[in-house]
Amino acid sequence: MQIQRRRVLAGLGTGVAVGLAGCTGALGGEDDDAAEISGETLTLTTTTSTYDTGLLDELNAPFQDRYGVTVDTVAQGTGAALETARNGDADVVMVHARSLEDEFLEDGYGVNRRDLMFNDFVVVGEPDDPAGVGGGDDVVSAFAEIAAAEATFVSRGDDSGTHTKEREIWDEAGLEPEERGEYQEAGDGMGEVLVRTDQGGGYTLADRGTYLSMQGEIDLEIHVQGPIEDGPDLLANPYGIVAVNPAVHDNVTYDLAMAYIGFLTGLEGHDVIQGYTVEGEQLFFPEAVAEDPNFQQYVPADWKPEEG
């Protein structure tokens, strides 16, 4: 997926945007929807990056006010968030590892997936850059150089979206990092891993949003940029949102989940995501509102319709 810092679409008519969101309109009129779901609680499992950055507070508050509901947010790594939903303990999931999302859909646990937003991953580390990877535009080579220099690398180690991406990069480099004594698996969220890297030295892979939101608290620098700043596309970090399938778990609040998806992928959600900044830095870029929505966002990436 090509991601460049860009101006998001402007001037879309309200009718077009509502049609593109494709969610809340299916539930009937807005007043009817609010009356039907008022007082309910939506359980959202999501990544630590969306929670730690504060974005969810900005998204959830207007949704709760509009519908008279409560959003109970459970912040986990992507793998854990999807597992919680598989067990029927969530109504909707917001994550950022497409391969894991596809498994969730293929196994029948998720329905009505939507692209939501993106940022990117960056390689960050101590300012003196002991492996000399700063300024490079090849993240696979950067990982190989970190390993060759026997520099510390702190991994999420938690089956999160960030950990999934990190494993993909090590695989591209043809390396097994666990065989190195300098490889540390934290088994923790992104914020905690950044603090640990800051305190102990070395490098880590971080989503740009969490790094920027914590930049004033840590002494780490970006050494390899992602595609938002013209770095490699391998570091793209798209987020999706998926409703839990009510045919599998009849306890889920499906109407409320779809109202939430519709709100986040509509104009209001777009504006909140677009306008959310920390110290003047935009952390996420909305992509749900588009002139030409991609059908592939709704189904597993390799799905093809059967020929009749």
What's this model, at a glance?
The chain has 308 residues and is α/β, with parallel strands linked by helices.
Tell me the count of domains: 2
Strand content: 15-25%
The helix count comes to: 12
CATH class of the largest domain: Alpha Beta
Q: How many distinct beta strands?
A: 12
Radius of gyration: 20 Å
Summarize the helix and strand pattern as letters.
HHEHHEHEHEHEHEHEHEEHHEEE
Structure description:
- By secondary structure, the protein is α/β, with parallel strands linked by helices.
- The chain has two domains: 14-119 and 237-298, Periplasmic binding protein-like II (D-Maltodextrin-Binding Protein, domain 2, 3-Layer(aba) Sandwich), CATH 3.40.190; 120-235, D-Maltodextrin-Binding Protein, domain 2, CATH 3.40.190.
- It is 37% helix and 20% strand.
- The protein has helices at 14-21, 30-37, 48-52, 55-67, 78-86, 98-106, 139-148, 161-173, 190-200, 208-214, 254-265, 267-275; strands at 41-46, 70-75, 92-95, 110-125, 153-155, 183-185, 203-207, 221-224, 236-244, 277-278, 281-282, 285-286.
- The strands form three sheets. Strands 1, 2, 3, 4, 7, 8, 9 and 12 form an eight-stranded mixed β-sheet that branches. A two-stranded parallel ribbon has the order 5-6. It has a two-stranded antiparallel sheet with strand order 10-11.
- It is globular and about 60 Å long.
- It starts with 13 loop residues before the first helix and ends in a 22-residue tail after the last strand.
- Mean pLDDT is 87; it is low at 1-28.
